[in-house]
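Record 1 of the preview.
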Amino acid sequence: QIQLVESGGGLVQAGDSLRLSCAASGRTFTSYPMGWFRQAPGKEREFVAHASWNGDTTYYADFAKGRFTASRDNANYRAYLQMNSLKPEDTAVYYCAVARRGGIATMAYDYDFWGQGTQVTVSS
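->
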């Protein structure tokens, strides 16, 4: 079992940056790829970024490319999502998740463990 807790969300202005953190319990966290998703009010949960088990391979949604960076620190059971040049349309609850499968996973149903989410609000 893997438990995930996100933190680092908040209210920022357009153009600002935020770094989200995901703290994991359970050694197996270091063996599996992980992802970041977000969900805005009234919208489906959408894929943001994916990082392989060691963070060497990353994959991003088109809207995240060039602005967001996913990374992980397995020694400390943590993952991060650095978000730069934030826009009002980035406003959402952001979730980290772990997938017990290999390869790049971009669908929510590919992931087995989820955090509770952290709110990011970007004002214009």
